[in-house]
Amino acid sequence: MLKSVLIIILAAGSYINAQEKYCIVKLPSISGIYSGGCKNGVAEGRGTAQGIDKYYGEFHQGLPHGKGTYVWANGTYYEGQWKDGLRDGKGKMVYKQDSIISGYWRYDKYIGEKNIQPYRITRSLYVVRSSFTKLPGTINSVRLRFTRGGIENADIIDLSLANDSGEQFRLGPSYGIENPHFPLEVIVRFRAWNNFHSTQYDADFEFVINEPGNWEIVVTY
After folding, report:
1. Could you please report the per-residue DSSP string of the chain?
2. What is the number of structural domains in the chain?
3. Which of 43, 72, 113, 174 is the most buried (most CB within 10 A)?
4. What is the pLDDT of residues 41-57, one digit of tens each?
5. Per-residue pLDDT tens digits for 119-163
6. Residues 9 and 100 in one domain
7. Which domain holds residue 93?
8. 22 and 95, same structural domain?
9. 138 plus 100 within the same structural domain
10. Are residues 143 and 106 in the same domain?
11. Which of 100, 135, 98 is nearest to 118 (CA)?
């Protein structure tokens, strides 16, 4: 009986070790030895990963995600929030020379002591809703689409666009600004018919984009 119990315990230990051994960490610099939560063969939940550098904290789909501490080989470390393997959110960098930088990171870059939002709506009149999407790529551009009932530019009589940098362009039903500098302030004004075509109204939509990128903005009125 005792022999059978020992065999079961050893088998369970071997299974756990196999899980840890084959649990993938997708960040190459810490991909080596891993122990901790695992789901579908990748690191998930809390764990510790050791490669050239070391990380201990929360993982999601094989990458640091959530709260964790990353220690570089030279002793410098970052303690704070992560998103998809990048420093993102509140945290602090501590260097070997006892120099500390605290504040907020976004996409692995330090943005300062205050958490500056990627964009901010400063005025919205007769706008039902809006969405700001940062598209992949390195181009700095802003494209605006205006929709109602799934139709672009429906019943818009006049539209004016003012921006403090960049050049305006028109591409089909979309309006845009290319080569802007950020932060970018934009003022949009247009007149449109209501759904019953019985009266017209003047809509205003003003916003500031602080973060460089390739932005698409959809305004529903």
Report:
1. -HHHHHHHHHHHHHHHHHHHHT-B---GGG-SEEEEEEETTEEEEEEEEESSSEEEEEEETTEEEEEEEEE-TTS-EEEEEEETTEEEEEEEEE-TTS-EEEEEEETTEEEESS---SEEEEEEES--EEEEEEESSS--EEEEEEEETTEETTTEEEEEEEESSSEEEEETTEEEEES--SSEEEEEEEEEE-TTSS-EEEEEEEEEE-S-SEEEEEEE-
2. 2
3. 43
4. 999 999 999 999 999 99
5. 999 999 999 999 999 998 889 999 999 999 889 999 999 999 999
6. yes
7. 2-112
8. yes
9. no
10. no
11. 135
CA 83, CA 189: separation in Å to the nearest integer?
36
| Predicted model pTM | 0.59
Query: How confident is the model at residue 6, as a pLDDT?
Result: 37
Assess whether 106 and 124 both reside in one domain. Answer: no
Q: Over the stretch 18-37, which tens digit does the pLDDT of each residue have?
A: 334 579 999 999 999 999 99
- Clarify whether residues 65 and 93 are in a common domain: yes
What single string gives the DSSP state of each residue in 67-109? EEEEE-TTS-EEEEEEETTEEEEEEEEE-TTS-EEEEEEETTE
CATH number assigned to the domain comprising residue 37? 2.20.110
